[in-house]
Amino acid sequence: MKTNIDAMLTAKKRCNTFAQIEGRRPRILLTNIHQDASDRDVNFKASALANTGFDVDLSPTSTSAKVISKQAIENDNHAIYIISHTNLTLDLLIQIMDCLAIYNRKDILLVVDNDHKTHYNLLSTYKSFYALDSKTGFYDTIVQILNILLQRTS
């Protein structure tokens, strides 16, 4: 098992690899769709993502699916990272994916924080959905996100 430092260094290397391939750093929109995540949690995740090499955009709390999608498209994000510690409504996730599809941006990866396995089977058909395992360390999670983004570049 890797330590946090090993995972962080791996994430930095993967970010650098991504930047060399794409010509820019990976860009992620971090959003808390419910008012259940503390500012400390959001700040930690934003800092960790930035420290490994991501360009991080923040969305206002409790934003609609349309606004989240529009912000991700306008910022040319590679991924949307949704923070929520409650069960997400399936409708909201589908609305985000549908909004991205309307604007022909199904390539934007939708990452959902916490275990939302009840929605995973249906949402995995969108091929741009990744549900995080709550038992995985955050830097390992960043490595997993980068692995998906790097697979898409080849």
TrEMBL record:
Q: What PROSITE patterns would the database entry show?
A: B12_BINDING
Residue ranges annotated for the B12-binding domain, each copy included: 25-154
Gene Ontology molecular function, alphabetical: cobalamin binding; isomerase activity; metal ion binding
**Gene3D superfamilies per the UniProt record, alphabetical:** Cobalamin-binding domain
Q: What is this protein called?
A: B12-binding domain-containing protein
Annotated source species: Formosa sediminum
User: Which lineage ranks, top first, belong to the organism behind this chain?
Assistant: Bacteria, Pseudomonadati, Bacteroidota, Flavobacteriia, Flavobacteriales
